[in-house]
């Protein structure tokens, strides 16, 4: 595999509460347990890429606090290059995650240091961007930084993988400059303006959306699988029948799998299969980064699936 991944994005210290249900308004409800781990969409996606054996660079901000120490150490432990992770005066970003017995997740994040990222941070990693690089972006950092990163990467002929999560208003001019747009069913409904009530409806909306954007668009649909469309090419992959312990990080694992597929010149269908394997392995454990599979685990799972 030639090439590398550069991630510009968020880093959060996550507190994961396992609970039988969400609390009611005004109620104090006891969780079954609490775990703390490193997270943030940017950090998670960087870790999954590194675990798949991709040379991976992370650009982001953490606070000058103990959580910032933990976040940087976590990235390094998985082989992510943290040269471009900076300290900010704001507190490190944080995520509070409620995970239910069926594996579903409800999460709230604080912006913290993630929203101190500036365009000059993009300039500092610009020398890493070239035709052999996949730039991975998400929407937990300032919008103007994302726009500037897309413009910078486009000039460098870099492949741009944009995970449009969490959903927010964004100029379509920049969306069309990206090579891949990835979103889950909630985000897809936000950007298409349509309710994705079934797989056939999602397929119709995806094809129309990809045609409008002029690039490769991917919808992840949770238990219903994932689908991808590029020009007149369409692929649908059902989800694997695995026991979901928790879905935190599943989407980020999927993005890492896509980056691996791009750098290994997989066709769109195979890339979708590979990314789905990554997610299927991630949901079988608690937490995001620790649950994400390494390349050996994915290839073994993928080999069994292929047979």
From TrEMBL:
PROSITE patterns linked to this entry: PFKB_KINASES_1
E.C. number: 2.7.1.15
Catalytic activity: D-ribose + ATP = D-ribose 5-phosphate + ADP + H(+)
Family matches, as Pfam families: PfkB
Notes on how activity is controlled: Activated by a monovalent cation that binds near, but not in, the active site. The most likely occupant of the site in vivo is potassium. Ion binding induces a conformational change that may alter substrate affinity.
Name by which UniProt lists this protein: Ribokinase
Physiological role: Catalyzes the phosphorylation of ribose at O-5 in a reaction requiring ATP and magnesium. The resulting D-ribose-5-phosphate can then be used either for sythesis of nucleotides, histidine, and tryptophan, or as a component of the pentose phosphate pathway.
UniProt KW keywords: ATP-binding, Carbohydrate metabolism, Cytoplasm, Kinase, Magnesium, Metal-binding, Nucleotide-binding, Potassium, Transferase
Residues forming the catalytic site: 252
UniProt-annotated binding residues for substrate: 12-14, 40-44, 140, 252
Gene Ontology MF: a single term: ribokinase activity
Cofactor: binding comment: Requires a divalent cation, most likely magnesium in vivo, as an electrophilic catalyst to aid phosphoryl group transfer. It is the chelate of the metal and the nucleotide that is the actual substrate.
Gene: rbsK
Binding site for K(+): 248, 282, 285, 287, 291
Residue sites binding ATP per the record: 184, 220-225, 251-252
The family this protein is said to belong to: Belongs to the carbohydrate kinase pfkB family.
Cofactor (UniProt): Mg(2+)
Ranges where the Carbohydrate kinase PfkB domain occurs: 4-294
Pathway recorded for this protein: Carbohydrate metabolism; D-ribose degradation; D-ribose 5-phosphate from beta-D-ribopyranose: step 2/2
HAMAP family with a match to the protein in the record: Ribokinase
Enzyme class (EC, first level): transferase
Record text on subunit structure and interactions: Homodimer.
Subcellular location: Cytoplasm
Source organism phylogeny: Bacteria, Bacillati, Bacillota, Clostridia, Lachnospirales
InterPro entries, A to Z: Carboh/pur_kinase_PfkB_CS, PfkB_dom, Ribo/fructo_kinase, Ribokinase, Ribokinase-like
